[in-house]
Amino acid sequence: MSMRSLVHGKAEGTCLKLDDPLSFWGGFDSASGKVIDRFHPQHGACLSGKMLFMERGRGSSSGASVLAEAIRLGTAPAAIILIDEDAIIATGALVAQMLYGIDCPVIALRDRHEWQRLSALPRLSVEAGADLVVLTPPA
Amino acid sequence: MELSETDREIINGDHGRAAADALQLVLKFAEAVGAPRLLPCASAHVDGCLYHGQASLDFVERFVALEGRVKVPTTLNVGSVDLIHPELFVGDSALGAAGKRLMEAHVELGCTPSFTCAPYQTLLRPRFGDQLAWAESNAIVFANSVIGARTNRYGDFIDLACALTGRVPDYGLHRSENRRAKAIVEIHGFDEAGPDQAGGLAVAAGLFTGKHCGDAIAAITGLPRSTSEDDLKALGAAAASSGSVAMFHAVGLTPEAPDLETATGGMDVPVAGRLGPLEVAEILSSLSTVKDDAALTTVALGTPHFSLTEFDRLMPMLDLAPFAVPIYVNTGRHEWERLCADGRAAILEKAGVTVVVDTCTYVTAIIRDLSGAVMTNSGKWAYYAPGNLGVDVAFGTLADTLHSAKAGRVVRA
Q1: Considering CB atoms only, which of B29, B55, B56 is closest to A94?
Q2: What CATH architecture applies to the domain B288-407?
Q3: Predicted-assembly ipTM surpassing the 0.90 threshold
């Protein structure tokens, strides 16, 4: 199985890997862009503008609203790179694109090794469309 | 993606601009989840009325501006304020106003102003086999498990987009092959349980199933005959709190599980756990953050919203009044109208019971005194409130909570 673009678009940023999946509802503050789940290993980390590597989605479907609101406010990650597809994260990013015309591409890599390898890079740019997903490390 | 004749009409704008716009989101969502086509949808239950920021409002106002109307019967989940008793809201007023507008904008789109998490009780009861676009975790589990209707775990935005188009993506629990049990939870030692005990057992079974089966559908065996529909509601709500549960089978009780073989489709599936009286007591005691005898400031009932049959059980217990602490009961406004009409609302008020409609005491600022522990018979309330409200909680059966309200401290009936 190859990688899939769940939400198309272009983005670039510093890579940040979350050690555990995060529920955007209750776990992330759209005003500050920070992780507020006090049980999360990266509690306090700022996700704004990052190429966010998260294994999979988690938690309430209200997470879609929180992500869309963060994209509106400019506090969201630049892109979200998952291993497995996630409907809630995809929905939040699709709606922000529809309402505000702001891209936050969401990719399902479907390959843990590739996900690990890319997450260790300092920076990454992504260009995701229906037929092609291009992930480029810095030259 | 296979497009039907109806899909093409919607895309062409034959069903209005809002439907055409909303279908784009449904199609992109369908693509993201890998659904090959859309299905006609019988009803929707929309959970967009809790305000999570400007984006919540921008989304629904977009369709109001396009003069959208929902294409199928659509109920609304709880909002941030009790529109019938707005004075109960004690939170920030700007937030209250935005929350109120969000609720009203949905009604302008033709949604029924139900504001309940349990639309299946008196309002819009789906039929067996109906394809639905429902949000709200407890309602999803109830519709799939207790009624045998079919919905995935829809939620913010996509629920309304399905309602505005009358279409739902064909994947997951919409398909028969994905509705079979993949795990078994065996309960023993409760054959003779009475109604009060069956209520507690249902919560424990639900919490266990959510924690240990996650999104794998469980077949639960050994629930007593005294298990009511309200207990199955509580089971589903608890399971959807501790795990991503969208469906369970209660063997011998729910429509797709007349027996274990039917529930599993004849497949050999693993036993995820065995629960006897000891394990059940342990699970339930782990829900409380305070010990028995601790002082209480409030009792909170009705998460999910109390049904009329639950009020039937509650009313005789009001003979225990006067109570030392206030009792809040969440219910739907349709149930509330019935209580007003038949005189029970007045009896509840006289006994010191505050009936809250349109919202829920665990998601919004309603309970005035949170300085001490709150007691509840709801596994869902007990699971979420310590995080949402920063409050201590004690769990008990319905009878426990009323006796404790009288004593002003945690006691067992």
Answers
A1: B29
A2: 2-Layer Sandwich (3.30)
A3: yes
